[in-house]
Amino acid sequence: MAFGRSSRKKPFVEPVTLKILVAGGFGVGKTTLVGAVSEIRPLRTEEILSEVGRPVDDLHGVESKTTTTVAMDFGRITLREDLVLYLFGTPGQDRFWFLWDELAQGALGAVVLADTRRLEDSFAAIDYFERRGIPFTVAVNCFEGAQRFPAESVRGALDLDPEVELLMCDARDRESVKNVLVAVVQHALVLADRSPAAVTT
Amino acid sequence: MSDEAERSRRGRDLTPGPHHWFDDEAGPVVRPYAMTRGRTSAATRHRLDLIAVVVPEPAADDPGRDQTLSPEHVEIVERCSEQPQSIAELAAGLDLPVGVVRVLVGDLVEDELVHVTRPVPPAELPDVSILREVINGLRAL
User: Fold this and answer.
1) 10 Å Cβ neighbour count for A81?
2) What's the pLDDT score for residue B106?
3) What range defines the domain where residue B83 resides?
4) How many structural domains are present in chain A?
5) For chain B, which has fewer Cβ within 10 Å, the N-terminal or C-terminal residue?
């Protein structure tokens, strides 16, 4: 029937796939950050929540609405033919935390993108990754026109553990975002070296 | 689905009906989970991760092997036959909810038309050597 195009016989390379999450408040630049390094225009996946999502959805005023669509933007970086890194922007709204659990499964680390004008928007994400022991790096997106603060005062305001790295970044800039991602993976490497459970996969 | 039902559905798709006013804003014409016949979880044992990669099996080259597949099943196999794709990419490419794609891919796994690579297991960090390769790869971008 319809598989006419698939005449190739060469076995496919089955890549090892890894993911890094990009978390942060609404409008902090998560999709911009993903787009700055992704080899594809950030794609959007959607999940439809219906009955299962209802207890946490506040449907007051929209009682007739029985489904909600949660969108997650993601990008891809092919590091080698057999090694592919995906970046997932997490849904911004707090009520979709349960989707984070699924996203966070098997993630090698996370970026918490912060805006100094709304630091409190990143508290929830920092708490989340701390509690689950997921390696993360805080990247302060230096918006034009926003007042710059010394890294130490931002660290203090976020109450970061000393080993969590905090970087200033420009989410639009490829090199800047690369540095942030390298910092995340380096942090994951430190934790993996320390944890005997992680020597084999 | 019987052949007749299949034919009549195909026929309907091809007929330029009076429904041209539908656009994306109107929402999907077919309710997404209708494509899975109402199922919301796949037959496979493991929940398919967003970055699990769908790879076609040799049987997927055999035309006419399975007449029970829906057009969406066929499209998944076709997309993966060009290049194995992750669940997330398939969902974005087909413009279907992730949950629907999981069920459809589960069917294809069951039919042994595709297999799915298992990403790094949950609650385990990837191998240290892989992390080093990721760092080198990122630096070299």
Assistant:
1) 8
2) 93
3) 3-136
4) 1
5) N
Residue B69 inside a domain? The answer is yes
Model pLDDT, residue B11:
43
Can you give the pTM of this predicted structure? 0.80
ipTM comes to 0.82
Are B81 and A6 within 8 A, CB to CB?
yes
- A50 belongs to a structural domain: no
Mutation pick from A7, A46, A83 vs chain B, by most beta carbons of B within 10 Å, is A46
State the Cα–Cα distance between residues A78 and A133, nearest whole angstrom.
26
B63/A1 touch (CB, cutoff 8 Å), yes or no: yes
Chain A residues with CB inside 8 Å of B114's CB? none
Q: How far is CA B19 from the centre of its chain?
A: 27
- Binning pLDDT at 50, 70 and 90, where does residue A11 land? confident
B112 domain residue, yes or no: yes
The answer to whether position B141 is within a domain reads no
In a domain? residue A49: no
Q: Which range marks the domain in which residue A86 is found?
A: 16-44+75-196
Question: Distance (Å, rounded) from C-alpha A57 to C-alpha A107?
Answer: 26
Q: Do the domain assignments include residue A28?
A: yes
pLDDT at A114 over 90: yes
Q: Would the CB atoms of A86 and B50 count as touching at under 8 Å? A: yes
Q: Do B126 and A191 touch (CB under 8 A)?
A: no
Indicate whether A69 belongs to any domain.
Answer: no
At A36, is the secondary structure helix, strand, or coil?
Answer: helix
Contact A6/B62, CB-based, under 8 Å?
Answer: no
Counting one residue from chain A and one from chain B, the pairs whose CB atoms sit within 8 A come to: 174
Q: What is the largest CA-CA distance in chain B?
A: 59
Average pLDDT over residues A18-28: 92
- Cα angle B110, B126, A102; round to 5: 55
**pLDDT the model gives residue B29:** 63
For residue A149, name the pLDDT band (cuts at 50, 70, 90): confident
Residue B88 placed within a domain: yes
Is A71 near chain B, with CB under 8 Å?
no
Using only C-alpha atoms, what is the Rg of chain A? 19
Distance from CA of B105 to the nearest CA of A (A): 16
Q: Which residues of A touch B97 (CB under 8 A)?
A: 45-48, 69
What residue ranges of chain B have pLDDT lower than 50? Answer: 1-17, 63
